[in-house]
Write a structure and sequence with these properties.
- It contains 21 helices and 13 strands.
- By secondary structure, the chain is of the alpha/beta class.
- A six-stranded mixed β-sheet has the order 2-1-3-7-9-11, sandwiched between helices. It has a three-stranded antiparallel β-sheet with strand order 4-5-6. It has a two-stranded antiparallel ribbon with strand order 8-13.
- Strand 4 and strand 5 form a beta hairpin.
- The longest helix has 28 residues.
Length: about 575
């Protein structure tokens, strides 16, 4: 792998492309939409991505002979291609695979190929080997054809983040093909008329569906989007193949904020870009299998590293399932969309939430840093951006679900060290140096904003409840937590006590920040009228009786200070008592 970072710049000097489409063959059977596929790709390159017409070679039908394709490709090896250039190659036509003594060999079939003579084909690995002769930093091959013989890697882990400017400083050679050797490309029936299934989804990706929320469009995003859509398309029997055959940078189609980042002289500011997961069923382990595995990993300290890696894989999948391209933050509110998002967020966060409940319940002290890291990484991409207030605030709902699952488990097990780790997990500061917010602060803030929108009062079946989200979660979480921990009749007690601790922790942090005492009111609020037997009264009485020996304080909640707890709890209890519950 080349390391050219000290020679390269964080932009492209020039853009070059070779675009090929073949419907009509001298001997091979004709195709219907290869030419229209190629023409639309060429149009997108020149109209949206800054490829000059003079730098785009377009070969269609009889123009796309073996010699013409090879000559056009080898032009990229000339001296007029610079290190900071990008080269894009698109082929729509027949592919062919032959099994050799060491494996499969893939071929492109040019217009004039003699089907009985492989020497008239173009070996795929001829292009990849000769890509070494092209001086540009980034090359991206897209082949709307099926064949084998590709040795590709995934240099960047899906779900990871990479710095935008750094990707521009790294060498890369990337490939996306329509399918594998034993698959047949669907030449029609895709999402767009007059285009193949593969290129139809490719065109939609390039038109914006694979862009990040910041407008960044990378080859990695295009590949993941097309892979998922083609694999799931009802008219497709093919599975695209994609990855790197050299390097670890990323071909950038567009990056609206890159110029501004380059023009800041006194600070090396950069922007993080997500390496997306493909949107396909990945055949994950069944949840029961995952919980069995995590219990085994939690049984001793020797598996701490394996536990970390296992949970980080789950966090990556969670981030992919809850990414902004799955949940548009613009658009009008509707009750139908609101309830659909609740369900989708619950499904996307289900496995990770249950696994974090396992950690909170059974963790040893050495595992709590991994628990905090899971919480922190789950919120990394929830930074502020424009959009509908309701949809922006609702992005925190799956994090709330994580906290409830793990927090209830911790309370049931009397694991106040786990509860403290959950509440006080430090979330990342922004790039301008703001203090690192604690998890309990962030969730309190966003729950307050959700309450202000009144959207929670529209949860179906809970419109007349005093604490609609609390009542909704009380019912939704019970089956999973009971299956996991067999809480039985203690579930309600654990749920209510968790909400009391959470509310008081939020109120405590707000008081420390001089923001006024407030905490989210749950089911325990209307129960407070019972007096001595209410969950809030129970917590206050235990703290009063045990003082500094109270287990939550010894675990670090409320700064470990009974005076601090008494101050905030008195004010909060007064607020709860004044609420018009009836």
């Amino acid at each position: 792998m080349r390391d050219l970072r000290f020679l390269l710049k964080t932009h492209y000097a020039q853009s070059h492309a070779l675009v090929i489409g073949i419907n009509d063959y001298a001997q091979a059977s004709p195709l219907s939409y290869a030419v229209s596929d190629a023409l639309e790709v060429k149009t997108l390159l020149t109209s949206q991505f800054g490829f000059p017409e003079k730098n785009v070679t377009y070969l269609a039908n009889a123009q796309a002979t073996r010699d013409a394709i090879r000559k056009a490709f080898f032009r990229f090896t000339k001296d007029d291609i610079e290190l900071d250039d990008r080269v894009f190659i698109f082929f729509a036509g027949h592919g062919h695979t032959v099994t050799g003594g060491r494996g499969e060999i893939g071929f492109l079939v040019p217009h004039d190929a003699d089907l009985s003579d492989y020497s008239t084909f173009i070996r795929w690995d001829e292009l990849t080997r000769n890509a070494e002769l092209v001086r540009c930093k980034h090359m991206f091959f897209i082949m709307d054809a099926c064949y084998g013989g590709l040795a590709l890697t995934r240099s960047t882990q899906p779900g990871s983040t990479r710095f935008l400017k750094d990707m521009m400083l790294r060498y890369s050679r990337q490939v996306l093909t329509a399918g594998k050797a034993d698959e047949t490309v669907a030449d029609s029936g895709g999402p767009l008329p007059d285009h193949s299934v593969f290129t139809g989804h490719l065109i939609e990706a390039l038109q914006g569906k694979a862009r990040s929320a910041d407008g960044v469009l990378t080859a990695s995003a295009v590949m993941a989007y097309v892979y998922g859509k083609v694999a799931n398309d009802k008219n497709s029997n093919q599975t695209p193949h994609y990855g790197y055959f050299d390097g670890d940078g990323d071909f950038i189609f567009s990056a609206p904020g890159l110029t501004e980042l380059e023009n800041i002289d006194n600070k090396d500011l950069d922007s993080l870009v997500i390496v997306p997961y493909p949107d396909v069923p990945r055949g994950p382990e069944a949840l029961t299998s995952k919980t069995t595995r995590i219990k085994s990993l939690l049984s001793g300290e020797s598996s701490t590293i394996e536990l970390h890696d296992f949970l980080m894989r789950e966090v990556r999948e969670y981030l992919a399932a809850t990414a902004e391209d799955q949940f548009e933050v613009n658009g009008q509110y509707s009750l139908e969309e609101f309830t659909a998002r609740l369900a989708k967020y619950e499904e996307a966060s289900s496995d990770l939430s249950v696994l974090l409940a396992c950690v909170a319940y059974w963790a040893k002290a050495v595992h709590l840093t991994t628990l905090q890291k899971c919480v922190a990484r789950s919120t990394d991409r929830l930074d502020g951006r424009g959009g509908s207030t309701i949809w922006l605030e609702l992005r925190w709902y799956p994090v709330i679900l994580q906290l409830y699952h793990a927090g209830i488990a911790a309370v049931d097990a009397q694991r106040f060290d786990s509860l403290a780790a959950l509440f006080y997990a430090p979330l990342s500061p922004d790039q301008y140096g703001a203090h690192a917010t604690l998890n309990v602060e962030a969730l309190g803030k966003h729950l307050l904003e959700l309450n202000r929108t009144n959207v929670l009062k529209q949860i179906p079946g809970h419109e007349k409840n005093f604490a609609p989200l609390s009542e909704y979660l009380f019912k939704v979480l019970q089956p999973k937590l009971d299956d996991l921990l067999f809480l039985g009749k203690n579930y309600e007690n654990a749920f209510d006590l968790f909400e009391v601790y959470f509310a008081l922790a939020v109120a405590d942090m707000r008081q420390l920040r001089d923001e006024g005492v407030w905490g989210p009111f749950g089911r325990f609020g209307w129960k407070h009228r019972r007096g001595h037997g209410s969950p809030l009264t129970k917590v206050l009485s235990e703290a009063q009786a045990l003082k500094q020996e109270w287990p939550p304080l010894k675990a670090g909640l409320f700064g470990g200070s009974i005076e601090r707890f008494e101050k905030v709890s008195a004010e909060y209890a007064s607020q709860v008592g004044q609420l018009p519950w009836f």
